[in-house]
Amino acid sequence: AQSVAQPEDQVNVAEGNPLTVKCTYSVSGNPYLFWYVQYPNRGLQFLLKYITGDNLVKGSYGFEAEFNKSQTSFHLKKPSALVSDSALYFCAVRLETGGFKTIFGAGTRLFVKA
Amino acid sequence: SAVISQKPSRDICQRGTSLTIQCQVDSQVTMMFWYRQQPGQSLTLIATANQGSEATYESGFVIDKFPISRPNLTFSTLTVSNMSPEDSSIYLCSVEDGLAGATDTQYFGPGTRLTVL
């Protein structure tokens, strides 16, 4: 079955420290991977996506993600966390079958402490 | 990127009534999507709406309960019919930035927070 897993419900980081939000996937065919962020009482915002090419993808707000095919992972990273990064983060995979449906992970809540 | 607005932003409704949620996009888009999200949880796709055709519903969602209209390329509505407390959720409208390809990015409206008493 095709799926996306975010193994951590919550990640706590001190401001200024690097952060990682983990995502693993299981799909047949080429994986098209996305990260979205949801701030309180707002809709999801696109952060970045991996389609092909360079395994390190840079996105909005200083975030980047590393695609690792052998580990089937697409972890979200940021070198120095800000308190304003505190939000709910969703990893998603776009499927080529079923009308290009998107499957979202369960979400990881990031708390950045000052 | 597309700018999406939804109305209402929130509502409190009595069980047995219906609520229609509007989604307006600032540009023409091929596909629009309706999702349901429990606060702090993941998204569940309700249906996909293409202009000029019937919406395609996901397993567990039916047209009688969630009728959708898509009269043009910038607008769609989702109605939650005969509501029960289990329908309390956040309803999100979403569009794609391309031509329904696998690499398309989705953009989301701010959501409608529905509470059914």
Could you characterize the architecture of this molecule?
The complex is a heterodimer of chains A (114) and B (117). Chain A has 114 residues and is mainly beta. In chain A, strands 2, 5, 6, 10, 11 and 12 form a 6-stranded mixed sheet that branches. Chain A has a 4-stranded antiparallel sheet with strand order 3-9-8-7, with no helix packed on it. Chain A has a two-stranded antiparallel sheet with strand order 1-4. The relative contact order of chain A is 0.33. Chain B has a domain of 72 residues: Immunoglobulin-like (Sandwich). Helices cover 0% and strands 50% of the residues of chain B. Chain B is built from no helices and 11 strands. Chain B is globular and about 40 Å long. The interface between A and B is medium-sized, with 26 and 23 residues.
Task: Give a quick rundown of the structure.
The complex is a heterodimer of chains A (114) and B (117). Chain A is mainly beta and 114 residues long. Chain A has strands at 3-5, 10-14, 19-21, 24-26, 32-38, 44-50, 56-58, 64-68, 73-78, 87-94, 102-104, 108-113.
Write the layout of secondary structure elements.
The complex is a heterodimer of chains A (114) and B (117).
Chain A: E1 3-5, E2 10-14, E3 19-21, E4 24-26, E5 32-38, E6 44-50, E7 56-58, E8 64-68, E9 73-78, E10 87-94, E11 102-104, E12 108-113
Chain B: E1 4-7, E2 10-13, E3 19-25, E4 31-37, E5 43-50, E6 56-57, E7 68-72, E8 75-80, E9 89-96, E10 106-108, E11 112-116
Parallel strand pairs in B: 2-11
Antiparallel strand pairs in B: 1-3, 3-8, 4-5, 4-9, 5-6, 7-8, 9-10, 9-11
| Series of secondary-structure elements of chain A, N-terminal to C-terminal | EEEEEEEEEEEE
**Helical stretch tally of chain B:** 0
Count every beta strand of chain A, where a strand is a DSSP E run of 2 or more residues.
Answer: 12
Shape of chain B: globular
Quaternary form: heterodimer
SSE pattern of chain B: EEEEEEEEEEE
Average pLDDT value of chain B?
91
Structural domain count of chain A: 1
The level-1 CATH class of chain A = Mainly Beta
In DSSP terms, counting alpha (H) and pi (I) runs of 4 or more, how many helices of chain A? 0
Shape of chain A: globular
